[in-house]
Amino acid sequence: MNCSTCGNSIEDGAQFCGGCGSLIDMQGAGAVGLIEAIRLGFQNYSNFSGRASRSEYWWWTFFVVVVAFALNVLGAIVGPFGIVASLFGLGTLLPNLAVGARRLHDIDKSGWYLLLWLLPVIGWVWLLILDLQRGTHGPNGHD
């Protein structure tokens, strides 16, 4: 079985991946929490290979949405935070693309599927459905 975070082979009964140190849940997929997802998102900000588990992807998305929302609310109240929100969005653009590509690799899809964001509504719904799917087990064409 392979780690869904980095794609390395995992020994039977292991609690952590030997390659990236991710916690392994009972089914063998990398289960990460909020802090671990944030760490992995910034640590692998330019890593478009390997896999990102559903938990890593969704905790990362939660972090980005909550922080962006908070900075935009503060920007509406106090002017300079609008600039901070824009800088945060720019600073998380590459990690967002990398986590998204690795999430698609986990379901055996190419990272190029991220271009579906360019199709309003239909592409967004399609990507949401893909991102909700359980990852594939074993090696795939994107490990």
Based on the model shown, name its key terms.
about 0% strand, globular, mainly alpha
Briefly, what is this?
With 143 residues, the protein is mostly helical. The chain has five helices and no strands.
Overview of this structure, please?
It contains 5 helices and no strands. It is mainly alpha-helical and 143 residues long. The chain is globular and about 55 Å long. The chain has helices at 34-43, 54-77, 81-91, 93-106, 122-132. It has a domain at 34-132.
Unreliable residue stretches: none
Query: So what's the overall shape?
Result: globular
Label the structural class.
mainly alpha
Radius of gyration: 16 Å
The largest β sheet comes out as: none
Beta-strand content estimate: under 5%
Q: Name the average pLDDT.
A: 86
Name the helicity range: 40-55%
Succession of helices and strands: HHHHH
The count of DSSP E runs of length 2 or more, i.e. the number of strands, is 0
